């Protein structure tokens, strides 16, 4: 049976000539006299629909935001219960190395540890995950970076410590190597445990070593630590070190490409400004600063200057990324003490002057310049000798979120700060790796080697 539409026929006469019940022609809606009334009705209906849609969106957003308690502390706890913190940099493996000589039977993470991190305080701080930083000291290995060292051995031991602890305390931790695994760990109430390698000096000048770290679970590489290496120039500790390459070396460029291919995040903390700019421009994937702060708030070479923050974002001429604010005191005010372990006195404030409010200033400044979708938390707990007042250990994250809520940050912005921004950046690196999966491994090698 034909549909009513196919059976419908156009009238033989224009509608203006079809008589009404009184024998008068029916006005044509398209006639000059009727068109204004018809158009006015369309505009009114369109405006009404638009108003209803806007009202619905406003109501949803308002409900989402107003569902929080007025008290900033209670509001922060409410947010973190549904979106726990993923910290970009925790130095627990290095603490175990220095204090316990890598003996994981010499302590109990369920009991209070000597520095900033243990399981009770992790739970109190509403932690959903963190990168276990694997770090070995960055000592001089000669002008050509060829002095033999034990760094690769020591890095493997650090990875071993991290994975053994994750396994031993499987009631709390779950190894994660992807965003899917991070979300699953949080869903089942575990702490997603990722591995990051803190320095290109730990690669033994070899991309093959990088690939093996990735196979063992590492998901970011900090291009440098406090010394230059065969791949890139460092920011140094308290003052910039003389550059070796003017940023990235040729092998460093190959390293960036290989990190993109492997789906590992490029970490620009500790790098020189030139290294950071070149890596930002070269990388096809989003980048991160796992534990850095804002140089405009405190002028320290380890912090990120505004002109680099302006390169971070989504859109033409920008690169997606995240700056994860560190809690090291000197990063936010001044004065660096001699390094011990990975410890300095801090990069956020003068000792005695750093506070939750000062750290919030760094977060807000990065949010203003790069955008609030490009800032996260990278405390450096267990790797710093002093912390801001109010952020003494891993249990205190809610204090920072309460301070930012007090300053007007919305629930969605604080969810991004806690974990959402990092997950987006990591997903971007994973997407880039899928796009590059057809490429073979890089066979680039350090040309100063004499054995190949």
UniProtKB/TrEMBL annotation:
Residues that span the membrane, as ranges: 43-64
PROSITE patterns linked to this entry: RENAL_DIPEPTIDASE_2
Co-factor requirement: Zn(2+)
Keywords: Dipeptidase, Hydrolase, Membrane, Metal-binding, Metalloprotease, Protease, Transmembrane, Transmembrane helix, Zinc
CDD domains noted in UniProt: rDP_like
Enzyme Commission number(s) from the entry: 3.4.13.19
Organism: Rhizoctonia solani
Region (Disordered): 1-37
Stretches with biased composition (Basic and acidic residues): 1-10
The protein's name: Dipeptidase
InterPro entries tied to this protein: Metal_Hydrolase, Pept_M19
Keyword Amino-acid biosynthesis found: no
